[in-house]
Task: structure prediction
Amino acid sequence: MDFIPYGKQTIEQEDIDNFVDTLKSDFLTTGSKVNEFEQLIYERTNAKYCISVSNGTAALHLCALALLEKDDKVLTTPNSFIATSNSILYAGAIPIFVDICPDGSIDLDICEEYLKKDKSIKAIFAVSFSGKILDRKKLQYLKNTYNIKILEDNAHTMGVKLTYSDLSIFSFHPVKHITTGEGGAIVTNNIALYEKIKMLKNHGQDDKHQMHHLGFNYRLSDISCTLGISQIKKLDLFIDARQKIAKKYDRAFKNSIIKPLYSYTNSSFYHLYVVTIDFSTLDITKEELFIKMRQKKIGLQLHYKPINKQPYYRNLAYGEELTPNMDKYSHECVTLPCFPLLSNEEQEYVIKSLFEIIND
Ligand SMILES: Cc1ncc(COP(=O)(O)O)c(C=O)c1O
Result:
């Protein structure tokens, strides 16, 4: 059996054919494929506007610049890829790390406690962690009650509808639901944010090449968008396949020491399938489990080490926040392989290997 990673893209002949067609066309960078891909995204997400960008981190960067001023305080989660809170720092603003719920997502009740106490907080940067859609009603309530901005980092929830949040971003990195190699997108219903982000993405220029902001080149090429177009058409199939895998894991781990992060729900797009294991009751450490699984050619992953405890953040005096759930979770969490091309046979091998090693 080949090595089984925790995540991987699905590239089919149709993707390759479309890609080659674009390579043979007149436009490799900003041609018609960019608009076509953006249209498919805003239609899919019920948003008015979409801006494609070179990756998810660029999307977060531009959103942070459009939403925030220097020294603004922003509530965010320690349980994410570092790019989520880094984007707050890019804008010269101040991330505040809030503890998580048992399902791995930011605890919006604790966010409310912060908002009640500190009226100067300007925004929440929240992540639908692992693919489970955040509580949108609660987000809308917080937005309206405390007059704050909401950015949804939907890198794990490609295609989720835009509801009340100001901005929502996606990533098209190969382990995500759809891929363009590197790539990302921003959706919004707010025309002012759309216009500003569109300029920032293209050197801060308007359509008449007048430069109004110090912008960047964060464009996504026609070549990449071509791949995005054929991929997004298969998004539902990809999500279905991931949900089937999640259901099967859930069944296999029932009444065992391996606990799914949350019981199966079709409100999760299962970008990640995460379990928690109480290693204090076992003879094996988490590191040993990772090594032994790798020896069996299975790649486990850790999502995530708390961002606030990263060395860079510690140097900024973060790391000692009261986040008991995050601390416990980060010791216990293990991400298992979950991607559309994972075969039944491979998944059964992963399950068997896990039990063998744990019960050894
Ligand atoms: C939650 C989250 N936000 C942002 C990103 C950044 O996306 P990209 O890798 O496309 O820059 C990722 C990617 O891993 C992510 O998982």
The radius of gyration is 21 Å.
